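[Automated response] Your request has been received and processed.

Submitted sequence:
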Amino acid sequence: MIVELNIENFAIVERLNINFTKGLNVLTGETGAGKSIIVEAISLILGGRANKDLIRTGYDKAILEGLFFLEKPKKIERILNQYGIEQDRGNYILITRELHATGRSVSRINGRTVTVNMLNNITKHLVDIHGQHEHQSLLNVESHIDIIDSFGDDSFNELKEKIKSDYIRILNLKKKLKSLSLEEMERDREIDILKYQIEEIDSSNLSVEEDENILIEYNKLNNAQNIESNLGKSVNILQSKEYDSFSTIDSLNDVINLIEEIKDNDIQLEKIYNELINISFELQDITRNLNNYMENIVIDKEQLDFLEDRINTINKLKKKYGNSVQEIFIYRDKIYSKLQLFLNIEEEIQDINKKIKKVEEDLKINCALLSEKRKLIGSNLEKEIFRELQELNMKDVVFKINFEEYDYFTISGLDKVEFLISTNPGEKLKPLSKIVSGGEMSRIMLAFKSILAEYDYIPCLIFDEIDTGISGRTAQIVGEKINNISKKHQVICISHLPQIAALADTHFSISKKIIEDKTIVKVKKLNYEERINELARLLGGVDLTNTTKLHAKEMLELTKKIKKGF
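Generated structure:
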């Protein structure tokens, strides 16, 4: 259940704190006082869609915080463990939602940042909010099957998941079949293109090693003349045989001869002499190597042209099929597999059709089983809804859940479900959207909620103006029904009816004031005398008379007896 709600800088709320209790919590107040803001704040805490426009004017962010107590923590604890969220020893969960003016929102559970999806997976087990949008879900025929399914047990849900899985598998198989079942002319054209590409790649005889070495060979051959010229000049500098020409080796030998004459005078000179001898030998070896390299240079124009053509061919293939030879090979393997698929298309199509047929056979059997379970749920639900509506002062109502079968599979099976109703004697059964008033719709939804509360234990139910369109004795009955639900669930109810407010275990009044050009929303937990005044306001409007106050007091005393009767 919700223990505490804190709201800061949200809509017209500057700062608000509400401590809810067990049983029935009722919030009342003037129209526009901010009752719906409380529900909106709770909805956002639970993972509802964030909107930066909800941040109070003049502030950069809004902070919403809800403290929850888990009376039956096992289910939630499993999810918290799955997400690695630290648990509170007292079975409390603190959920915080921050809305930033930048449009960003941050959600935290027990201080741990979580995604909205993670938040929803946890909070859907904590609170169920009934608002005006759920009236619309009753009017939407497509949602009726979901309402029926919400009463299913574990085996029902497992069967439904199996049907969903098979349905998605069929969609994927049919999608693949469609991609394979190209028109014959288009398929042949694709085959010709693939064969041409494979032949172009294979006939080029590419290799990774060639790709790495061919440019080196090309550069060497293309610059052969320049290499030969520079080598000739280098050799001539090192060892010129022409008269009066400078020779590095001869000059070095002259130096060696000079040092030789004096080397015996100092051991250091002898060491230098020996180093010069080694250098001389090395220079002679280098000169011989340069001569050998120069003698083996061949300017092969045909080979140069071949290399140039080969480089152009490789670059052309890279431009078409990949940035490297390795990528070209990968592409070739990919289109080869695609070609084989086209060449064996008939066999592949037959295989897929067999798989589709097999899955459809299984799906048909499971859909029939699911339909039986749904009809059983529907039969029981019809009786329970009829009983609940009778108790809610709809004495002449006839409620029917109509089942039809689609001639095609859906993700929920083959069933088409629609709720039909007759609210007056002699009227034919008609869809809800064509028959019910606002007050009748409120009671029908309350009937569903009352029954569902017995099947699916959600600790807190929130009713946002469930009393729309009702008054008098019907309002009293609706209030007693909500009070009955509050015996097993925490209920938070936004109401404008004194009959419901009088049944509250805890009554809050919401008010709005203008202080220094700022709108301030306040929530006050009412004591006995304050409840009398608030009920009198709900009964008689702004002017509180002794008569309305006396009536309000009588209502409170009467509800004490009613609550004891439960």
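Summary generated for your ticket: The first helix runs from residue 35 to 45. The two ends are 21 Å apart (CA to CA).
If you did not submit this request, please reply to this message.
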